[in-house]
Amino acid sequence: MLVVGTLLAALLIGLALVAVRGKPAPGAGLTADFNLANVPYAGREDAPVNVVVIEDFKCPVCKTFEETIAPELTSKYVQTGKAKLYTVVWPFLAEARRLPTDDSRLAAQAARCVYDHGGNEAFGSFKSILFRAQGDEGTVWATKTRLRELAGNVEGLDTSKFATCLNSDATAAYVDAEKKVVEDARVDHTPTVFVNGREVINARGQSSYLLADVSKAIEDASN
Q1: Residue 5, in any domain of the structure
Q2: Nearest in space to 111 (alpha carbons), one of 125, 126, 100, 101
Q3: Would you say 63 and 109 are in contact if contact means Cβ atoms under 8 Å apart?
Q4: Helix and strand tally (H, E) in the chain?
Q5: Does 16 map to a domain?
Q6: What pLDDT shows up at residue 223?
């Protein structure tokens, strides 16, 4: 029993060391090489800086980011051609809250369908609609019925194709694959912002930030 206990303790210590080694040093931030070929974005195609925002449509902090920081970034960097603003959806909140229906995943599927059938502009419109319609993160609000209603507000979107896409196994598989990519990058919260593959960390070495932190990262990447 003593030998078995010693071996188990050694195994747990080893796993803990692996977990620690898998994380960046405090204040260092993550690095990630995302494949952005099929990811929706706002901005000019030839913009030199890539800003990637990891979000869950059920995340209230993401809603705040979209209402406060994103418009300033759009005005200062996206509309001037200095940066592209990508949205990578990581549907984790409903699962984390153990909700009976994974509406984080359903919302992500809906957004993917809008992008597939309407492109970047339609996706941007739908993203804004979803965040405005956001309910409490502890409740199931992004049902298929509600998502179809919201998608009906996207100008020019074929709602029949959208509904078919929303129920597609291929759409669900794409969302699951994107989720794995984010988790493989060791992202553990939303929103998380990467500028040219580097996580934005504020002056205090934390992953919560203000407009100034993201702006500085973009300016640094531009030089």
Answers
A1: no
A2: 126
A3: no
A4: 8, 5
A5: no
A6: 86
Q: Let me know if residue 166 belongs to a domain.
A: yes
Work out the burial of residue 121: count CB atoms within 10 Å of its CB; fewer than 13 is exposed, 13-18 middle, 19 or more buried: middle
- Residue 41 in tokens: 């974005």
Q: In whole angstroms, give the CA distance from residue 86 to residue 105.
A: 19
Residue type, position 125, single letter = S
Distance CA 59, CA 61 (A): 6
Q: How far apart are CA 184 and CA 143, in angstroms?
A: 28
Query: Domain of 203?
Result: 30-222
Query: For residue range 93-126, what is the model confidence (pLDDT) as tens digits?
Result: 999 999 999 999 999 999 999 999 999 999 999 9
List of E strands, the chain: 41-42, 49-55, 83-89, 192-195, 198-199
Higher pLDDT, 150 or 22: 150
With bands split at pLDDT 50, 70 and 90, how would you rate the model's confidence at 201? Answer: confident
**Domains: count for the chain:** 1
Two tokens, residue 170: 């291929």
Specify the pTM.
0.85
CATH number of 107's domain: 3.40.30.10
Helix (H/G/I), strand (E/B), else coil: 47: coil
Question: Does residue 79 sit within a domain?
Answer: yes
85 touches 74 (CB < 8 A): yes
pLDDT score recorded for residue 141: 98
- Is the backbone peptide bond immediately before 191 cis, with ω within 30 degrees of 0? yes
